[in-house]
Amino acid sequence: MDQTETVTEDFPDAPAKDQKLFGEVKGRDTCSIPCDITVKLLRDEKHSICGQLQQSLLAFGRSTRKLIRDVMEEQQRALDVLSAQVTELMTKVQTLSSEVQRSNTEMYSVKPVQSHGRDCSDIKDNLLSVVPKIPSGIYIVHPDNTDSSFEVFCEMDYMGGGWTVMQRRTDGLTDFKRPWADYIDGFGNLAGEHWLGLKKVFQIVNQKDARFQLHIALVSKDDITSYASYDDFRLDNETQFFRIHLGRYAGSAGDAFRGYEQEENQDTAPFSTSDVDNDGCNPFCSTGNITLESCSMQHNHTGWWFNQCGLANLNGSPDDGEQRQGQRTRILWDTWRHNRVLHEIKSVTMKIRRIATNN
């Protein structure tokens, strides 16, 4: 008897090895789904899910497009309403603007601007019996025998008040390098640095039965004050280039307008600018060793009553800018000196006031 038989006999209940393996394979094949069927089921399921997803996406796309279309239509309706409202509002604004413009035209044609007086001296005299203290500030004046009213700055708390300011230089923020037309009409800020304008000054000082004093107040860099005053001041008209006429001098700064020599005298000189040259330099002027064609150009293109340049120009700059060779950019009043040293001027005010007449 061989070994196989022996093992079988020793373990009668144990199945043979081959039988066990066959049984296991047979059982597994019986409970499992074949692979090709599983693949087919999965493929069908995937196709079904994809189809459902595509249908959902299509439905979502249709609903989204409809929503966007509805929103855009609603916005368009709102824009149409807003556009109509804007158009209506613009029409009302234009109508109102036209009415306001017409009203202003009618108002100014019927009601001219009410002036406070003929000049600051006249304003002071008119208000003195009404108010105990008249404030300095901007007032409207209407000189006699003129068709125009204009604003001026009145100094009411300086040496008795009633001063009409015709020029002020304090900080150098206003550019005085100007052509003839600007000096004729005036420029700057009345409450600060400004030039009132030759036409306006002419209208004030040439009123009938009126005489005016010119007062020049100077302040140096070290806060020393001085002044020059002329008891009679007037201007010729524009055809005479606003030639200046000065009365007797009084003061502590010296008479720089007339200077020390006759050739330095600026009294009766016409006004001059860089573009309208009336300075008398024909063809040249000489100051020291310098030959000049234009006093205005030498004085930083400012306007003044130059006569072969002279010793005064209050329209120079109060700042400390460097002066080029042969240039005079600063405020000049050459007769105001201390121990023969010229004062550096940081501010100046030119003002005029009525003086008593014999009439």
UniProtKB/TrEMBL annotation:
Pfam families named among the record's database cross-references: Fibrinogen_C
Keyword Coiled coil among UniProt keywords: yes
CDD domains: FReD
Annotated Fibrinogen C-terminal domain residues: 111-356
Coiled-coil intervals: 72-99
Sorted UniProt keywords: Coiled coil, Disulfide bond
Tree of life domain: Eukaryota
SUPFAM superfamilies assigned to the protein according to its UniProt record, in alphabetical order: Fibrinogen C-terminal domain-like
Keyword Transmembrane included in the entry's annotation: no
GO CC annotation, single: extracellular space
Name used for this protein in its record: (Atlantic silverside) hypothetical protein
Source organism of this protein record: Menidia menidia (Atlantic silverside)
Taxonomy of the source species: Eukaryota, Metazoa, Chordata, Craniata, Vertebrata
